[in-house]
Amino acid sequence: MAGTLAEKVWEAHLVRQGADGAPDLLYIDLHLVHEVTSPQAFEGLRLAGRPVRRPDLTIATEDHNTPTLDIDLPIADLTSRTQIDTLRNNAREFGVRIHSLGDADQGIVHQVGPQLGLTMPGLTVVCGDSHTSTHGAFGALAFGIGTSEVEHVLATQTLPLAPFKTMAITVDGELPPGATSKDIILAIIAKIGTGGGQGYVLEYRGEAIRRLSMEARMTICNMSIEAGARAGMIAPDETTFEYLKGRPHAPEGEDWDAAVEYWKTLRSDDDAEFDEEVVLRASDLEPFVTWGTNPGQGLPLSANVPVPADIADEGERVSAERALEYMGLEAGMPLRDVKVDTVFIGSCTNGRIEDLRSVAKVVQGRKKADDVRVLVVPASARVRLQAEAEGLDTIFKDFGAEWRNAGCSMCLGMNPDQLAPGERAASTSNRNFEGRQGKGGRTHLVSPLVAAATAIRGTLSSLSDLDLPGDVDLITFDGTPLAPLDAPSFV
Amino acid sequence: MEKITTHTGVGVPLRRSNVDTDQIIPAVYLKRVTRTGFEDALFAAWRGDPSFVLNQEAYSSGSVLVAGPDFGTGSSREHAVWALKDYGFRVVLASRFADIFRGNSGKQGLVAGMVAQEDIELLWKILEAKPGTEITVDLEARTVHADDVTVPFQIDEYTRWRLMEGLDDIGLTLQNEADITAFEATRASWRPKTLPAKHLPNVPIEPARPVS
Ligand code: SF4
């Protein structure tokens, strides 16, 4: 029978098929662990006297609570310090590999897996974090789980699960200049809504997706969760293989050949049936920005803030009114006139080396707008090293930005990097909920290119607002990797 | 998880409906990193009131909670079940439960039995007339017995079986251990392992400092 990519990966991991409405038992290839959702899971094991079944398929890192300054000093916030200490102790006790602050492979869990070459096509990947969907960019079935499920996986390396539905999202054509994969996913969410993907695994396909680099694909899969989906996937291809080749945990020699041969079979069959299909034209896309307090409340940057009175649907109207009130925006004002206080470049959505490179190319030789605070936070310490080797840190510092240590940082208000009440940010992260970046903080989700242009002008802007010299062979806007600078690869 | 076929303990009448998970355990306690020791957090907002039922000597060692309808609504926090168990409760009886709470209870070995509201009223009367009365909950017969009254309760078959066998989700999965081991034997050699660790050299990282 013809199958979709998700179904193929599912079937390859069936330990036991559930009979009579009982869930299937699925084998888990890779379990990523961080400090926030794991303590009770480890304690549960301890109480039941159970070991971690496969420490060799488990890896831990510190990210949500870690400060991005002064990482050599004790963590000031006591709750944060306790969570991190607890993770370190648990890792030691149960024999789990951990990358702690100060280690080159410390960083956001969804960057660490790919950069070590642990995330591969055809795997099942789980983590107690909803943005585990990021790893689906490799053609893995990757999804977030709750704390009891974390314990379940630690103890059994399996999960009882009911099958998901499948949705194909085809993005045809080519992205116009200045638009990026972030704009693709924001447009998708605005189209299908924050609940549109509920119960589904989304498979992104089509020419525009094929043309994207691995990192740009990760940005898209990352935000599948903001469309309500359980996971997002992209079939592996040469871009995927190239990204993986030579990474520390990538297969070698004959293993590599066998793996690639298998990976090539991981695509939805031509006659596979999806439960739902959506089509988008990339050439219609422009830089997108959110104006409200959920990721579905987004519009092209050239648009105006919506006027709630014009919205027919009562629920949406009320939610828009509330969002505008919280965001401190005037109905009908041009989005381009919105002035920001802070620009945050980072997170598991857009804190990777390509994101940093593209921002650096835009801001190189310029100065940030006065009164705007600019934070650049690499997703992992290895990304930071790479950026420094390429001299990007100097570009950022000369621009007037702060260059930080790796972590989740201002993506969520759990560590010291937070917005003050009423402070407005253009942020490359993935969630713009009320208070997400700090109590009372206001978030506009944007691509790294929009973030860079906004940092220069102080108001929400895109590259077309900048006076770019004609000869700048700026960014390959479709996300094709830039020519490598003189530095080691592998980030 | 401990097997339960019958349980006998002091009944606690909680004459309130719609007890949501925020009332069972307020959000401030969710910051903890432990899975036990939540007994102090149970009904934290009400514990300061001397007239609250658990503050009365006769009920303080209760292990069977008899509550009003729609117990456990609100957030999905498992902490609500942990707090009840840590306090010493083994059984909650109510005419209706929130789905997630009921699911979490089953996983953690807390019996959530559905008893008709008129029977709940009956139990309340007995418990209030004679504080400290013990209730016996029999999973086999699906009955609740207090004083001279015996009433039926409902619980879904699957959960009942798991409680009586003492199987939590993990225990249940581990019954398939042979299947898991067999599956592991078929995994291709190229599939990644995190150990032994492989990575690029660990270069020292300069800590970033606040900018002045
Ligand atoms: S960067 Fe943000 S979204 Fe990503 S794992 Fe950290 S907190 Fe979650």
Question: Can you give me a brief rundown of this structure?
Answer:
Chain A has 491 residues and is an alpha/beta fold. Chain A has helices at residues 5-11, 39-48, 78-94, 109-115, 147-156, 181-192, 207-210, 214-222, 238-244, 253-263, 314-327, 347-350, 353-363, 381-389, 392-399, 448-457, and strands at 14-16, 24-27, 30-33, 58-61, 97-99, 124-127, 141-144, 158-161, 165-172, 200-205, 231-233, 276-281, 288-290, 298-300, 342-345, 373-376, 402-403, 424-427, 442-445. In chain A, the strands form 5 sheets. Chain A has a 5-stranded parallel β-sheet, with helices on both faces.
Describe this structure in words.
The complex is a heterodimer of chains A (491) and B (212). Chain A is 31% helix and 16% strand. Chain A is α/β, with parallel strands linked by helices. In chain A, the strands form 5 sheets. In chain A, strands 5-4-3-6-7 form a 5-stranded parallel sheet, with helices on both faces. A 5-stranded parallel sheet of chain A has the order 17-16-15-18-19, covered by helices on one side. In chain A, helix 6 packs parallel to helix 8. The longest helix of chain A is centred in the N-terminal third of the chain and has 17 residues, at 78-94. The two termini of chain A are 39 Å apart. Chain B is flat. In chain B, helix 3 links the parallel strand 2 (64-67) and strand 3. Chain B has 8 helices and 7 strands, in the order E-H-H-E-H-E-H-E-H-E-E-E-H-H-H. Chain B has 212 residues and is of the alpha/beta class. The chains are: A alpha/beta (491), B alpha/beta (212). At the A-B interface, helix 2, helix 3, helix 5, helix 10 and helix 14 of A face helix 7 and helix 8 of B. The structure holds iron/sulfur cluster. Residues 63-64, 108, 110, 129, 131, 347-348, 408, 411-412, 429-430 of chain A line the site of iron/sulfur cluster (SF4).
